[in-house]
Specification:
This protein is an alpha/beta fold. It folds into three domains: about 5-85, 3-Layer(aba) Sandwich (Udp-n-acetylmuramoylalanyl-d-glutamate--2,6- Diaminopimelate Ligase, Chain: A, domain 1), CATH 3.40.1390.10; about 100-325, UDP-N-acetylmuramoyl-L-alanine:D-glutamate ligase; about 335-480, Mur ligase, C-terminal domain (Protein-Tyrosine Phosphatase, Chain A, Alpha-Beta Complex), CATH 3.90.190.20. About 30% of the residues lie in helices and about 25% in strands. It has 15 helices and 24 strands. α4 (about 115-125) packs across α9, α12 crosses α13 (about 410-420) and α14 crosses α15.
Length: about 475
Amino acid sequence: MLLRDLVKNLDTVDIKGNVDINIDDINYDSRKLKQNSLFICIKGFSLNGHEFILGAIKKGSIAFLVEEDVYIKGYTFIRVKDTRKAMAKISSNFYNNPTKELNLIGVTGTNGKTTITHLIKEVFEYNNRKTGLIGTIKNVIGDEEIVSSRTTPESVELQGYFRKMLSKNINDCAMEVSSHSLELKRVDECEFKFGIFTNLTEEHLDFHANLDEYRRAKEKLFNITTLGNIMNIDDKGGKKIYESIKSLKTPVITYAIEEEADIMAKDIKIYSSGIEYKLITPKYQMDIKTPMPGRFSVYNSLAVIALCYLMDIPKETIAESLEKTNGVSGRFESVDTDKGFSVIIDYAHTPDALENVLKTAKEFVKGNIITVFGCGGDRDKTKRPLMGKVSQEHSDYTVITSDNPRTETPEDIVSDILKGVDALSYKVILDRKEAINHAIEKAKEGDVVIIAGKGHEDYQVIGKEKIHFDDKEVVKEILGKE
């Protein structure tokens, strides 16, 4: 593509060099550059892309998108005020604006995004709609699965994924949209047809100044949708966003269990094997069954049903596909045992998510609840004592351990957790494998062991090193299942 076309409608400060040159690739990562590429210089939290310009030239870059006033003769430099924002526009241009052709569904909120996007994909494909997936665990494009490094990719990868989906005749995409991606402009230039809001609890307060700022970041999604917004109005954050967006041209549909809403669940029954409820919509009522236990599963399924309702997907196939779902890896995932007790692995790493998981276990446990959890390092510290308090209040015994300590010491992280704990029914074991082993050894018939925080993750980050660690593998090894 001609550089001139690539930067069309871009708000530039100045351009130095020739724009009538052909660009074969774009990237913000100097390690991945190819010949005849445009290198986008991003000022990150720890690195400044402008420092890699000379290395990018050696890799084959012939043009540069910059914020700083820099120029090297023989190359083209396009200066803008914000390279992140410009990168989103250029990425969309480079891949010929794929989201104009795609039914893109954005799901945002603190908890439930991964489950909801996976359920959307399952329900859509049950209705013979080829569906892509962008999310925390993986990005799925037809038969291709790409392990995710973040919830929402940078705009360059994102627009490339969308174009690849269309090339494979995939016309629908369910996508997790993080608050980071909205604030850091990764999803600028994405044309979202539908937006879904799940809930808002304390999370990422190391990035956002407070809960209100976090909510306002999430709210951005619902100002750029074109066909419909779907809001959980049992949630306080959801109510506030609903009040803010209900006067927009884009229609809003609500879902809830407690509040009066467009899509509701009544007569809810929760079992260890799943949930049942009566679905109430403006047009029809029907019984819903799904093998995903817990009150949070009611909310997740309602969000998916609300979307299908807006899209006029047949109600019978919605119910059939939800009844046949396999759930999501690392989300209230049960590990088979023959010991008379249950072991459940969940990604819960916020106070609200942990409380939901433990309350769900309480609904069917016959003995005690034993919880293993830790908190990540270099992340929001305010949630640590809150998670300690939640585990103490809803567990019979807690094993406090290490999660991804990163550059913090596990001892300091645990010290923060213990500020919310004042009972004696806990033990600190910093080695995560030993902690899981201790919990399983302590479990008796009828007990439930909850291992929280990592879910689908198969690694631990200790210092700057990423080592292999999979909670499910460890459990199976301890149980002699491998």
